[in-house]
Structure formats: C-alpha cells, structure tokens
Amino acid sequence: MSALTRDSNEIYSVLLVEDDQFKQEQVEQVIRAARRSVHFTISRSVQQAVECVRARAYDLIVLDISLPSHESRPGGAQPISQPSGGVEVLLELAYEERVDPVVILTQYPEIEYDGSLYLLEKFKKAISSSISVNILSVLLFNPKDKSWSDQLVGLL
After folding, report:
1. Rounded to the nearest 5°, which phi and psi values hold at 64?
2. Mean pLDDT, to the nearest integer, of 71-99?
3. What is the pLDDT of residues 107-131, one digit of tens each?
4. Minimal CA–CA distance to 113: which of 78, 66, 151, 53?
5. What is the dihedral of CA 109, 38, 59, 104, to 10 degrees?
6. pTM to 2 decimals?
7. In the CATH scheme, what architecture does the domain 8-155 have?
8. Domain map of the chain by residue range?
9. Which of 1, 77, 103, 116 is deepest in the core (most CB within 10 A)?
10. Strand partners, 136
C-alpha cells in the first residue's frame, strides 16, 4: 500500500520545507484537518532539507522552491536567497534514489530549472525528463485563493 493510501489512523510523516511562517502554518492546518495523525518535520532552508532527506524517508514532502541556502545564525554567514533552492532538494532525492512523494507548493508562477523558466504546469514534465523524482503535483500557493488547499487535500 502506498504512503498516501494508507489507513487514516496511521501516523503520516511529512517533511515540510518552507521558510515562510504564515505559509507553513497554512499548510500544516490543511494537512492536519485532512489526516488524524501527522508528524511534521519542518525545514526552513536548502541545507536543512537536504540533511532531512539524507536522514530518513517521508510519507510526503511538501516543498517550497524559493528557499534560503541555510538558516541565519548569530555571527554566521548570511543566507543566500535561492529562487530555485528547492530544486536542490529534488536533485538530492534523485541522487539518493528516493521515491518519497513530493508536492511542490510555490507562490511563483514559474520555476527556473537548467537555465530555463517553466510554468508550474510544465515544470514536472521538464524535471522528470532529466531526473527520477516522485512529484505528485506542482501547486500555486495563493493565500486569497484556497484552491491550492483543495488540491493538496485531494492528493492526501
């Protein structure tokens, strides 16, 4: 039985890769309303997300594309904004030959990959032609339009 079709009483392990607190809370709320038992691992940067992916498998990964390189720490180097930082997480999943289901949830209508910009509905095909990743869907997050949440629930 696949991770997304398991019994609703089982605990789902979700890696939520998101640096925006508001968006994180919205996603958590939607998933918690759809599933009884969910354990979230929160990652706020590319570096953290890659470490999480290397550490274990997840029933679902909800991935923002625009992420900072690493978390800001007092006295440390400033994080670098990476408009396509989430792609690095996808590349790590492919490198590790992982099949964790991924839902990309971004606020931007296009994603840069391999030097080109792709509309969200074309990104899955573009990246899947060069690496093997289990992308379920690419959704546009808009706090004023809840269609993203309906689509996300439909995938659960």
Report:
1. -80, 150
2. 75
3. 999 998 888 899 999 999 999 889 9
4. 66
5. 0
6. 0.85
7. 3-Layer(aba) Sandwich (3.40)
8. 8-155
9. 103
10. none
End-to-end CA distance of the chain: 14
Only one residue has tokens 């093997």, namely 132
Residue-by-residue DSSP string for the chain = --GGGS-TTSPEEEEEE-S-HHHHHHHHHHHHHH-SSEEEEEE-SHHHHHHHHHH---SEEEE-SSEESS---TTSPPPPEETTHHHHHHHHHHHTT----EEEEESSSEEEETTEEEEHHHHHHHHHTTS---EEEEEE-BTTBTHHHHHHHHH-
Contact at 8 Å (CB) between 76 and 109?
Answer: no
